[in-house]
Amino acid sequence: MKDMTLYINCCVRKESRTNRLAKAVLQKLGEDYTELKLYEENLRPLDLEKLNRRTELIERGDFSDKMFDCAKQFANADTIVIAAPYWDLSFPAPLKNYIENIYVTGIVSAYNENGLPVGLCKANYLYYVTTAGGPYDPTYSYGYIESLAKIFFGIPKTHLVKAEMLDIAGNDAEKILNNAINSVLFD
Ligand SMILES: Cc1cc2nc3c(=O)[nH]c(=O)nc-3n(C[C@H](O)[C@H](O)[C@H](O)COP(=O)(O)O)c2cc1C
After folding, report:
1. Does the C-beta of 133 come closer than 6 Å to ligand 1?
2. Which of 15, 91, 144, 151 has the largest count of CB atoms under 10 Å?
């Protein structure tokens, strides 16, 4: 079966530089990809009604409801590319909402008999692509995603692809971005 790359696009701006950088990563990977545009998906957060229903279904081991489709798609992807700009030292809210939605015990992760997490995801690689207006600190964005991937999802290799200092007065943002794109494509 053909490999499936899942592109999780959390970029809201039409001219998004993060999306441009991610497109270079996807081009380099050289595979077709399935794109999930988080701003168009309108995934409902886990409000009380959804949380209760989800808990009940997970307890029954019944994952047939369409609320689990995103989790299954994530678990079955061979490669994952996430694009999210650096917002407020982290990433935009739709990505957190997406993580809440896909983090289903029994689909992306499970616990062994010692109570330790075991990843159920198929992917070997996860790329996290971001751009930042100032200096980029990965603690609350890539750092968090990396921990989730390696500790809970069973995705062993994660890579950060970034362009930073784009909004600093006097900096040539196009040049910085193009350098980052060229590093992805040609290094
Ligand atoms: C709501 C919002 C929050 C932001 N927060 C930060 C921040 O905490 N640190 C920073 O360096 N840049 C911050 N920026 C600037 C963006 O990271 C930067 O412009 C980025 O390249 C935007 O990506 P895009 O072109 O893909 O939309 C913020 C921008 C927005 C719109």
Report:
1. yes
2. 91
